[in-house]
Amino acid sequence: MTTALQATRLQDRLSSELTRLKDAGLFISPRVLEAPQRARTRILGREVVNLASNNYLGFADHPFVKERAAAYLHAWGAGAGAVRTIAGTLQIHEDFEAQLAAFKHTGSALVLQSGFTTNQGVLGSLLQDGDLVLSDELNHASIIDGLRLSKATKKVFKHKDLNDLRRLLQEHPTSGLKLVITDGVFSMDGDIAPLGEMVKVAREFGAVTYVDDAHGSGVLGEQGRGTVHHFGLQHAEDVIQVGTLSKAWGVVGGYAAGHQDLRELLINKARPFLFSTGHPPAVVGALSAAIELVQQDSSFIERLWDNTRYFKRELQTLGFDIFGSETPITPVIFGEAPAAFEASRLLLERGIFAVGLGFPTVPKGLARIRNIVTAEHTRDDLDTALSAYAEVGRQLGVIGG
Ligand code: PMP
């Protein structure tokens, strides 16, 4: 009887929450890829050009990366066997972290399970009561959640607005640590943080800068070393870099790169590191191959940028608004959410997989399709997508002609 009552309560909760999400237009039902993560994949039984992934360099299914993953799997086993601080740190974990630190030109690096848990781990470990955090209004959800774990005073500055940042720093003096937090590349608009100027402002007030480079790593800077490198700040000891290993690097994981003391603090305090098992060997192998590949062969990044320039230019020639994007993340603005969702559906009918995003993920009136160009797309893939865009844009009255 009691069990039945509990089951009913649970069912009521589940269905009321699902109804609420559906009524608010927030219910998500992910598309299923019926073939590997590639520039062309398969959805609902048909081949599609994939403009929806973060697989910037095409490493998610690259033979060199997969071979190394298989080699590490066979040599080191399927799992790490324990959390890193107990018995789960394998030699390959440490070797990869040294490889990543050398690549990033930082004193050290630590790898965590994901970009999401990295923000939670670093912000949760570093910040204390009495500290001040200044966070860009468009920073990623994992930064927002990471900040919830700290007792620091949090202030949000207008997107990339250095005057607003300066105002907040002036209005909130503190003797504690001051941390200015920004995404390196913003995930919805594809614009780049003005890091050089931002670090200068931070320094005027004795603040440290924290960059989440999820979308800049593997994309910007020499050999894809990231946004911090792009601005020549890789040796700056007052800049902390975090990022993900799941986008350009094609696998999974997050990292924090900086001073050796940062690494040691995280090993001792970051809760995802302390209480959740580290990566399986295959992941470590794939990642080490990905970083090697980008250094051996510059054509991945060259193709990524050639494709990006071509796709953006042609979309603009067609009359689309790409909202000032500066990177392979290419939004196409459709106005209100229903128009963006309809455009996504019409594109899929024409064999193009590109996802529509509306409020609250992006501001009202700026609903869009977010396209991500990759190194793997051929000119033919992009031209197929552009013809579909032209048809759909005209049909929905977003472009003329
Ligand atoms: N930070 C930013 C800026 C991101 O875009 C993402 C990915 N959505 C993350 C962190 C989280 O990375 P991961 O997928 O590795 O958890």
Task: Describe this protein's structure.
With 401 residues, the chain is of the alpha/beta class. The protein is built from 15 helices and 13 strands. The strands form 3 sheets. A 7-stranded mixed beta sheet has the order 3-9-8-7-6-4-5, sandwiched between helices. Strands 1-2-11 form a 3-stranded mixed beta sheet. The model has no long low-confidence stretch (mean pLDDT 97). The structure holds 4'-deoxy-4'-aminopyridoxal-5'-phosphate (PMP). Keywords: Ligase, Pyridoxal phosphate, Transferase. Belongs to the class-II pyridoxal-phosphate-dependent aminotransferase family.
Largest sheet: 7 strands, mixed
Number of strands: 13
Number of helices: 15
What is the percent of helical residues?
A: 40-55%
Strand order of the biggest β-sheet: 3-9-8-7-6-4-5
CATH class of the largest domain: Alpha Beta
Number of domains: 2
Rounded to an integer in angstroms, the radius of gyration calculated over CA atoms is: 22 Å
**Morphology call:** globular
Low-confidence stretches: none
**Could you give me the name of the CATH homologous superfamily of the largest domain?**
Type I PLP-dependent aspartate aminotransferase-like (Major domain)
| Distance N to C terminus | 67 Å
SSE order, one letter for each helix or strand: HEEHHHEHEHEHEHEHEEHHHHEHEEEH
CATH topology of the largest domain: Aspartate Aminotransferase, domain 2
Report the CATH architecture of the largest domain.
3-Layer(aba) Sandwich
Strand content: 15-25%
